[in-house]
Design brief:
Blueprint: H1 3-12, E1 15-16, E2 21-24, E3 33-42, H2 47-59, E4 67-70, E5 75-87, H3 88-102, E6 111-114, E7 129-132, E8 135-140, H4 161-169, H5 176-186, H6 196-207, H7 216-220, H8 232-241, H9 247-262
Antiparallel strand pairs: 1-2, 3-5, 3-6, 4-5, 4-8, 7-8
Helix pairs in contact: 1-4, 3-6, 6-9, 8-9
């Protein structure tokens, strides 16, 4: 195994803990968990717009710096690494929270997320890779990110494995305590007294990138339609009756509401 492969697995892939070795079991476990989160900004690839997020997650969330990559085609990417895996829908919800917090003025179509909702078919990219003749994706140093052309975010020669491994070796994973602190800031407040079923609807709702009913101005202020609710039943009813929500999630909310109504009052 090369040093680059070792660093890639250390940061982004799931491992076989029992064997105490970095044996990859893929980017998504059989339980739907992930350790890597990727956010891409393209059309155009604009580092000036994405840089405030790279700085912000360190200053606001106290996270370690994410890796910066050019995807070799049309976008800059930020790669976040988790010390412990989390459910993919939880990771998707956090990415949506980051998008709203730092890229509220950017058209949604310019941003790609991994993991994302099931309706998105974008696959997690592998970096570095040859995407076209003389167009390589690569991890890049922060001080070099701004030199890439918006229309050609790529290297024209194969990046040296030793240099890529060195960049990744300087990064650390987001610890569980840092992740949990960010959840409180980025995700809507859970309704008081909500049970596991309602919490699941909450996370899936946040991950689904449902438009704010008051429009982009409210999103820009980091508001959320369910952030002020203290009644689980009212929250579930709003999800059920929101026509912008997927039918699967509305059904999930209905089941959670029915379960709450059947629970005896103590």
């Amino acid at each position: 195994m090369t040093r680059l492969q070792t660093q890639y697995q250390r940061l982004y892939q799931l491992h076989t803990i029992e064997d105490n070795i970095a044996e990859s079991s893929g980017p998504v476990s059989s339980q739907g968990q992930v350790r890597a989160l990727v956010l891409a900004l393209g059309k155009p690839a604009d580092w000036v717009t994405l840089a405030p997020m790279w700085v912000g997650v360190q200053a606001d969330l106290d996270w370690p710096a994410p890796a910066i990559a050019v995807n070799g085609v049309d976008a800059f990417e930020l790669w976040f690494s988790l010390a412990q895996p989390v459910a993919s829908n939880e990771a998707a919800a956090v990415l949506q929270g980051l998008r709203v917090r730092y890229l509220a003025d950017v058209k949604v179509g310019r941003v790609k997320l991994w993991p994302a909702t099931t309706s998105t078919h974008w696959r997690m990219p592998r970096i570095p890779a040859l995407l076209a003749p003389e167009r390589w994706s690569a991890f890049v140093a922060p001080d070099l990110a701004g030199v890439f052309d918006d229309d050609n975010p790529s290297l024209d020669v194969q990046p040296r494995e030793s240099a890529q491994a060195e960049l990744l070796s300087r990064l650390r994973c987001i610890e569980p305590s840092e992740w949990m602190a960010a959840l409180a800031l980025l995700l809507p407040t859970a309704p008081i007294g909500s049970d596991a079923a309602t919490q699941k609807v909450l996370v899936n709702y946040a991950a689904a990138s449902v438009p704010h009913p008051l429009g982009p101005v409210a999103e820009k202020c980091h508001d959320h339609p369910i952030g002020t609710h203290h009644d689980p039943g009212r929250f579930l009813l709003e999800v059920m009756n929101n026509p912008t929500v997927s039918m699967a999630l509305r059904v999930e909310a209905a089941k959670a509401l029915l379960s709450n109504e059947k629970r005896p009052v103590l």
